[in-house]
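Supplementary Methods, section 5.1.

A reviewer requested that the exact input to the structure prediction be made available. We therefore reproduce it here, unchanged from the version used in the analyses.
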Amino acid sequence: MSRARAEILARIREALADRPTVPEVPWTYGQAVGTGSLDTVERFVERVADYRARVDRVGHDRSGAAIAAALKAVGAERVVADAAVRVTWPDSARWVADDMLTADDLDDVDGVVTTATVAIANTGTIILDHGPGQGRRALSLVPDVHVCVVEAGQIVDDVPKAVAQLIDSGMHTRPLTWISGPSATSDIELDRVEGVHGPRTLHVIVVG
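The structure derived from this sequence is encoded token-by-token as follows.
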């Protein structure tokens, strides 16, 4: 350590000498956190709504209709999705196949529909591993509207459990996209701007 740095640190310690000792807060990473009085799905729905995303919970028999309604609500007619989504919900949209569409092509479509890999209740986060149902990463980043279908059984309470699940399934080695609400950023004056780095509108449909 340099003499100057040692002198600065010594002065800081001297200045803080009369401060009370900070108690140690016990914490073990990975311990169960829980979701309080709400179950995992209820907490997830609450947190997703906090991010200004739209969220609906429906039964399996209503998933296709919910997708169609979500797209209609924002006027999305030409919608891109991978083959797994188009086969599962063939009548929910005017589908556009992703035949390696360019960024300009994706910008011209009205929206995208994907499924998810895992979701986190306490943070309202959705994780995509871009396997079947989720398409390549550009699909969830370029179109202005993203409708994401999340199975209730995919929702876990907190981040450590989600990470453990990704590791156990081997998905942690894939490129992952973590989504917490619509794309948003703020400038130095804290003016919120949506849609700069991804979809301006996120609509999450929880199934089950």
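The longest strand covers residues 145-151. These observations are discussed further in the main text.
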